[in-house]
User: Fold these one by one.
Assistant:
Number 1:
Amino acid sequence: MSRDRDFTSVGRALAAPARSAILNLLMEGTSRPAGELAQGAGVSASTASDHLAVLVAAGLVTCDSRGRRRYYSLMGPQVATALEALGILAGPTPVSGYRKSRQTQLLAAARFCYDHLAGQLGTALADAWTHQGWLADSESLSLTAAGADGLRELGVDVDGAIDARRPTTRGCLDWTERRPHLAGSLGAAVGRRFLDAGWVVRHRTGRGLNVTESGHSLVREVWGIDLTEPAGPAR
């Protein structure tokens, strides 16, 4: 069997603006109903159904039936990683109007890449933790003993991340910052901790995150990170 990969099936699945919009909505690791995805992609319910069938057949998206409704999500973190990396090559979608411009700013400042923090916040944390000696390498972002202790003090479930079946740490190339942010089970645990502690909150629409006042204070006072994105609503 040839070791060459056939990219054509994935390429065909991605070759529609509506499907691109759907995948962008699912990139934060959420599970969304078909109607919500149709609205977000700006297409009819029947058209969205056709697009979703293509994405499911290509192995990019999975479907879960809950009663009369169908919910869609990315097939897994490996799909999010691949799409995030493709974002380096892909051009941005056209932005018109204040609302879309604001959403673009939110994505660049802080967002979820499937289940881990990305954007300016995610890469700044990876840089700071590497400089501090919590992560050993700027590419693999492997966890050190000092990093395990420091993240435990922060309330991150480090032991659960280490025991998970997926890799504990992995550098995921950020498409807006063009350098790695922390992925893997530890990256997911950090993302959960930031949400649970109220340091970030999900934006009401789209993928962007608001960094709250307490989140800004934490990253500034502990790691010297000064984010340009204004703080969101405090908790």
Note: Residues 95-101, 229-235 have pLDDT under 50 and may be disordered.
Number 2:
Amino acid sequence: MPRTGRPKAELTLTDVERDQLVRWSRRRKSSQALALRARIVLACAQGLDNKMAAAQVGCAAATVGKWRARFVAQRLDGLVDEARPGRPAVISVDQVEDVVVATLESTPANATHWSRAKMAERTGLSKSTIGRIWRTFELEPHREDGFKLSNDPLFVDKVYDVVGLYLNPPEGAVVLCVDEKTQVQALARSQPAFPIMPGMPEKRTHDYVRHGTTSLFAAFNTTDGTVISSLHRRHRAVEFKKFLAKIDAQVPEHLDIHLVADNYATHKSPTVTRWLEAHPRVHMHFTPTYSSWINQVERFFAYVTADLLQRSDHRSVQALEADIRDWVKAWNEDPKQFIWTKSAEQILSSLARLLQRINGAGH
């Protein structure tokens, strides 16, 4: 005689119950647990046993049995989570709102931003509670980011121009991102550094002696990541023209040269303009004002700073320049191409969303 198992309680639905269960199972804002329970009951109402219903909704048969019995006993109310035992919440919604509003719209006395301790003192809540509220609403009063919006009337045109060179470089040409890293200082620390040890980072003195400065001129090839560079003690139009001449000499004659540069005065000086007129294969493309992020050579300068200059210790400008030349030489032996992925449309859309968000925050 086949086993029939434990008899199942009969489960039938009214039209009102069925409509509510369907809404719970489909509504996106329902909790996933409640949606699953609604689907279980709907499957059972089709006459399916626990195993068949479990296979249909994708859960264990024991789970189906639990919520089938709960629904039969308590109907729709049985599917809602019961209150859990324990101490009731002591932080009211009004208190949470007060913390959030105060964080966004005010500053403490004699301070530029809120700390957990200052907000806890203001509200009477604990510092850990303030921290949890801030994490929930993704508020970080202790942090700040810098920004500078371009006021260039030709911003859109220049973005399309420069990004177009990155994504669709012209045939028979090379695209070089050009700029100067000025005022690179030869700094001699007042005492030798303590080397890194287990449990202790490298230690350097905060004071130093200046031994002069130099400027690194660089042209970053967007195709292969190689760099043409020069070092000059000054960064006038004369030095920039010399650097352009070096670029012209090193790029094969059959290639046009497209240079991406910022709006620094030396890049547009009469001396440079006359040189460009005499060398028609060289084309200048200027980035929008306050938009150094669009010039790929800035990322190259960041590598120079992090790898060499940030912890440098040089007793003369000559020693500094020798190290920079060696570093650039090593870079060109294993160059890193920067892959540009954002189209002009994506950049402009992202900027529009930022401005909309900033303007909306002020209301």
Note: The beta strands are 173-189, 208-221, 227-232, 256-261, 282-286.
Number 3:
Amino acid sequence: MSKATYPLKLPSSIKEAATRLAKKDGVSLNQWIASAVAQKVGSVDTAEEFLKRKAGDADGSGMLRFLDLVADRPPLPDDEIRR
């Protein structure tokens, strides 16, 4: 496995929390951060693949037909988009 370096700048509070958790897990801060990044990459990739499978061949036209059924009236009070 090849390794690459990356200069990482963290807010002090995040670094302190990560250091505490790494110590609790009995690993170096570098190992802990690498593991945390790997977990995040895995979860994002898994979610992306899951959503692609669920979407299948959907192109959005079904949703547009559904939205066409909604009554054309002004929003209810406190339901407006604030700009």
Note: The longest helix spans residues 29-55.
